[in-house]
Amino acid sequence: MAVNYNAKEEADGHTSGVGVAGGGAAGGAGKSRKPDNTAFKQQRLPAWQPILTAGTVLPAFFIIGLIFIPIGIGIFVTSNNIREYEIDYTGTDSSSPCNKCLNVSWNSTPPCTCTINFTLDQPFETNVFMYYGLSNFYQNHRRYVKSRDDSQLNGDNSSLLNPSKECEPYRTSENKPIAPCGAIANSMFNDTLELFHIDNETRIPITLNKKGIAWWTDKNVKFRNPFGTTNNLTALFQGTTKPVNWPKPVYMLDSEQDNNGFINEDFIVWMRTAALPTFRKLYRLIERKNNLQPTLQAGKYSLDITYNYPVYSFDGRKRMILSTISWMGGKNPFLGIAYITVGSICFFLGVVLLVIHHKYGNRNNSADIPN
Amino acid sequence: MGCVNNRIKTSKYNILTFLPVNLFEQFQRVANAYFLFLLILQLIPEISSLSWFTTIVPLMVVFTITAVKDATDDCVSICSKLPLQSLQQSILQNEKWMNVKPGDVIKLENNTFVAADLLLLSSSEPHGLCYIETAELDGETNLKVRQALPVTSELGPDIRRLAEFDGVVVCEPPNNKLDKFTGVLFWKDNRYSLNNEKVLLRGCVLRNTDWCFGMVIFAGPDTKLMQNSGRTKFKRTSIDRLMNTLALWIFGFLVCMGIILAIGNSIWEHQVGAHFRIYLFWNEVVNSSVFSGFLTFWSYIIILNSVVPISLYVSVEVIRLGHSYFINWDRKMYCPQKDTPAEVRTTTLNEELGQIEYIFSDKTGTITQNIMTFNKCSINGKTYGKSVFINVLPKTVPVDFSFNPLADRKFQFYDHSLIESIKLGDAMVHEFFRLLSLCHTVMSEEKNAGELIYQVQSPDEGALVTAARNFGFIFKSRTPETITVEEMGKLVTYQLLAILDFNNIRKRMSVIVQTPDGQIKLYCKGADTILFERLHPSNEELMSLTSDHLEEFAGEGLRTLALAYKNLTEEHFKEWFKILQEANTSVDSRNDYLAAAYEEIEKDMMLLGATAIEDKLQEGVTETIASLSLANIKIWVLTGDKQETAMNIGYSCHMLTDTMNEIFIVASHTGMEVREELREYFALQALALEGDLENEFVEVACMCKTVICCRVTPLQKAQVVELVKKHRKAVTLAIGDGANDISMIKSAHIGIGISGEEGMQAVLASDYSFAQFRYLKRLLLVHGRWSYFRMCKFLCYFFYKNFAFTLVHFWFGFFCGFSAQTVYDQWFITLFNIVYASLPVLAMGLFDQDVNEQNSMDYAKLYEPGQLNLLFNKRKFFICIAHGLYTSFALFFIPYGAFYNTAGEDGKHIADYQSFAVTVATSLVIVVSVQIALDTSYWTAINRFFILGSIAVYFAILFTMHSDGIFVIFPNHFPFVGNARNSLSQISVWLVILLTTVVSVMPVITFQFLKEDLNPTLTDQVWLNLIMKQKPLQNYMRRVYRTNSRRSAYAFSHQEGFGELITSGKNIHISQYNYFILLKSGAFLKNC
């Protein structure tokens, strides 16, 4: 950009014109009302004045183009190399094994279960992340988003027994405060997914790691169980009741003490609401065991689903996703394509502007300024 | 008579009314009322989509800042605190002006302002005469005479009798007619009729009268001066009005968006939400989709209200205040002689200074200094005196008058040959100055030896007599019968036989004197055209020579008078004197007889020469007017003075030139006549005009290059301004220095007061004040232009920024079930306009410059975009909105695409609501910062600091609010804990931010580049010129001399009647007419 320090030029004094010559008349008196001669007050602060010239704009376009296209290609290739496998197990299709569970309701006993077999054509080499995905599920609805009490979830004992009004109508049940209160907690995803590798007709369960799926800050700062003299969660949650849709109270979410109550990671993940109605949430981790074998070999697998969560009524969809991860996240071709497109447009614009500038550019005859 | 005290309220508020009045005024702003409405909406829980504090905190800040600013603006102490003597129970008491009531008898001293409308009771001068100067009232510079009733003048200085004065005055109700007063005084069982000659009006100055007593008739707001000053109005700029309109449009836009989203919500609730109820309960109150849509509408109004953020108005006020301070601080508008810097008295009008189309200027004291100097003369065919324009050169030494002990030190003359001629005893030169020392109506007073004081009734005459005095012909004293002159050191007493007084028709005055040796002489001075007709035929040659000189003088804008004398024989005089006395005693049409008698003797005169008096213009007036005309600003001069003097000034400041070949003068006295004259004029262009006279006047006047209106009363000045405002829809500026300009100053969009020597009333009523007319150029071309430029840039950016910020919610509405869920954190919404994005744009609004001050002054054409309102108008506004819309689209849909159904680089959340909010907010802050960086054309350290600082502060606040510590304290208010560090550590988030920034900014750069490359504006060119370091184009102001002028520059601010007064002391009658003159240029004919 063209830079012009014009302060000096100003200070050199174009004081001609109507300028008042010197301060002689009022000088020395000390009480003169003559304004101070500072660069700030006289609006002569040193400044540089960039201007959009062909010399700056055109190279900028070319440079942006030349940087963006490789980035885009890089992202695109990376995204394409991500292994991802997705199963819709909602069961809307009558041929689907889960079709029978389509109209399941909360707390149906015994729970409806179904099994879906699938085949991975290619092995998943690195750590695999198992997600559940929901579509048409409005976790970002205003009434839904605000229907929680962060204070309660943070282990505040007074909020535990007296949840925020925002939780209405899931604030109390049977005259007892609900813990955790609110619509978000009440609608927690509660399908159970189990993965088996079918090797020669034998089902080998795959170890699904349920810890380490939530953000560290969520697990350790934002969500805390209520404090008390005892470690017994049952006692700590004394006086509260479970959310209406839940089969069991919050202190029975998991058998392990550090994954139970409000700090249950499945719960934490659910409580971090999604921005868009179609989303995926991390469900389990499948860690690579050794360097010799891929995490998931190519072959046949089966997914056992305990189908508790009804979505069909609002035309929702449930998916199970297996995916690897790259440096820029999960599989999404958008960013790569966008970068390539924008880079190309910039480059193209650079060329067009160059042609226009050379053919019609009007800057050369700026010498004759009319007055 | 009502008992009104003399306190004049020029301020808008007092302590009691301040709060309600100020609040009312603030709520007059559509936007403020609207914010209050929003605030009420937010208190309804079903609707509230934002915490209530997001609106009320900024609103309170806005109201407080504005109220404090208004309070300081409205300078409270208006009442003069000058002590004044008033009579109560025969004791003179010092009173303050404001305590004077009707019925009081007060004493005035020489050179003081008259404090109220008074009935003159008695004065120090014989016959109860007193002299007043009415320049503050009507701009006329000559003295006027007022005379007390004989019965009251007998009271004299007797305080006891004055205190017992118990006359009752019955008079007309207060009105604004300055030249008319009717009333009756009942005193001691007699009735005396009163007229204008018996009253002293507030605003006059007592001159040449040691003291006078008067009874207050009208005080305070009832005085004719205040009746003339019009009401104080709440001035608002056109940008203000545009902003109000736009606020309404935006509100309409808001309602449209609200309706779209509400309909969306109803449909969604019906189609989707109804099935989603297992997870998303119905609220008890909300039980139908239509009602839900209705509530959503209001919720969205609240969320989207930031398209007109409250901070807009505060920011605008702050910017205007800053610009005002820059004007106050400007050393180049500081007048060292008077130690007066420019002062901004209304801080809300600055950008309008960049849009002025019409300037209405007062003459006396504004354009002229009201100082007359004897500048040149032509004696017997020879000119003396150097050109007025050369005398500024320092090497010219003024003539040394030290030989003359009585010389006036202030008088300067630059031609030594004249003094030599006098010393050599050139008879004609002596006769010339003898005439000047004899033919006048000046009174003299010799206080101490060698200290001669002249009491002049017009400054022109004073200049002539003073010139004669300095050249050795010293007028010493006069009695009704004699004039004593010290001629070259010896005293000579002339018998004064007759004064043939001046009047507007005769345009000359003569004296007939008898020299000590018995010779009778007639000395005459007057307009050359008149005088040349009555010269003796033998003067032919001298006459043509002199008239050449007169043309030359006139060409320089000097006021000229021709001088002639005539020797009379005693018989001739006696014969004529009889005729004169007959004429004097005649009852009917005495004036006609007198005029005929004068005619009789004033003929066959011998030409002596001519004088040229410079009506000194204020410094730099010509250059200022020339520059302002170049900037396409039309300048009208409105003066209460006479046509001749007004036109003369028009020529001397080059508003009128001889290239204007069609000077059109309307000088009719009645509406019908004026109408006919205007009609005739229109006949030329075959334009059928119907309707008001006003219309025609404005139509004609606005086609003229220059308009000078003379003989206008203060109220008429305001009416002219109102006319132009009404019919032209143009931005007007009025500048003046006197009390007679107050009404005009108040009614124009911008009023400027010249803080002159005396009288602060114009300044107190004005919006801006400075000491010299020439500062107007800098005020308009530099400060006004910059203010307008900055304000427009600021507004464009501001609207863009807020649309970009707000419309993201609109797009998000389609993906969150139209539930009025915000995209951003509430804290971000609260702070965005106040903290993150306010300072850089404020810095731009305060410091930006496109071209520097020198270029702004040099290229007056740069002022035009302001007049044409090019930089911010409805079209620009839509462009800004489109830009904002586009940016908001990019801001929402790029993260949407990038995070749709995907996970972060650790496999965990990236598309959760909070991460999405942080990503969009960060992109927004960066995009608007880059945009302001592109918009800023003048990068001072402050701009850099604010732009980089805002981004830094954004991240600092972001990480603080997302920190563990603050969450532990307020878990419900800061639920975004840990979000910043989790989201912003992901590469893909930064890739999204980078992409959004480039996509948002790229089209802007492209358009801007194409515009500047293909169709550069003048600003761009000047700019580039500056960058390329080319030599600045010189812009010489050439002095246009009037050549071939056939008109006489005769102008004499003299009034008839003084001759008579001198000889008889009789009262005089003055008639005043109001008429306009329009002067127009040849350019007009080409147009039609």
Automatic annotation (TrEMBL), chain A:
Annotated localization: Apical cell membrane; Cytoplasmic vesicle, Secretory vesicle membrane; Golgi apparatus; Membrane
Lineage: superkingdom: Eukaryota
Region annotated Disordered, chain positions: 1-36
Keywords: Cell membrane, Cytoplasmic vesicle, Disulfide bond, Glycoprotein, Golgi apparatus, Lipid transport, Membrane, Transmembrane, Transmembrane helix, Transport
Compositionally biased region (Gly residues): 19-30
Membrane topology, record value: Multi-pass membrane protein
Swiss-Prot/TrEMBL GO biological process terms: phospholipid translocation
Cellular component, GO annotation: apical plasma membrane; endoplasmic reticulum; Golgi apparatus; transport vesicle membrane
Predominant place of localization: membrane
Transmembrane segments: 51-77, 334-356
PANTHER family the record matches: CELL CYCLE CONTROL PROTEIN 50, CELL CYCLE CONTROL PROTEIN 50A
Family the UniProt entry places it in: Belongs to the CDC50/LEM3 family.
Name used for this protein in its record: Cell cycle control protein
Source organism of this protein record: Chelydra serpentina
Lineage start: Eukaryota, Metazoa, Chordata, Craniata, Vertebrata
Gene that this polypeptide is encoded by: TMEM30A
TrEMBL record, chain B:
Topology of this chain in the membrane: Multi-pass membrane protein
Signal peptide: none
Listed GO MF terms: ATP binding; ATP hydrolysis activity; flippase activity; magnesium ion binding; phospholipid transporter activity
GO cellular component: plasma membrane; trans-Golgi network
Translocase is among the record's keywords: yes
Highest rank taxon of the organism: Eukaryota
Reaction(s) catalysed (UniProt annotation): ATP + H2O + phospholipidSide 1 = ADP + phosphate + phospholipidSide 2
UniProt xrefs under Pfam families: Cation_ATPase (PF13246), PhoLip_ATPase_C (PF16212), PhoLip_ATPase_N (PF16209)
Primary subcellular site in the record, as a coarse category: membrane
Keywords: ATP-binding, Magnesium, Membrane, Metal-binding, Nucleotide-binding, Translocase, Transmembrane, Transmembrane helix
Required cofactor names: Mg(2+)
Subcellular location: Membrane
Domain P-type ATPase N-terminal: 4-56
UniProt-annotated catalytic positions: 362
InterPro entries from the UniProt entry: ATPase_P-typ_cyto_dom_N, ATPase_P-typ_P_site, ATPase_P-typ_TM_dom_sf, ATPase_P-typ_transduc_dom_A_sf, HAD-like_sf, HAD_sf, P-type_ATPase_IV, P-type_ATPase_N
Record-listed ATP binding positions: 362-364, 461, 502, 525, 559, 639-641, 711, 717, 740-741
Binding site for Mg(2+): 362, 364, 737, 741
Enzyme class: translocase
One GO biological process term: Golgi organization
Keyword flag Translocase: yes
Transmembrane segments: 246-268, 288-314, 794-815, 827-847, 877-896, 916-934, 946-970, 990-1010
Residue intervals of the P-type ATPase C-terminal domain: 763-1017
Documented EC number(s): 7.6.2.1
PANTHER family: PHOSPHOLIPID-TRANSPORTING ATPASE IM-RELATED, PROBABLE PHOSPHOLIPID-TRANSPORTING ATPASE
Family in the record: Belongs to the cation transport ATPase (P-type) (TC 3.A.3) family. Type IV subfamily.
Name by which UniProt lists this protein: Phospholipid-transporting ATPase
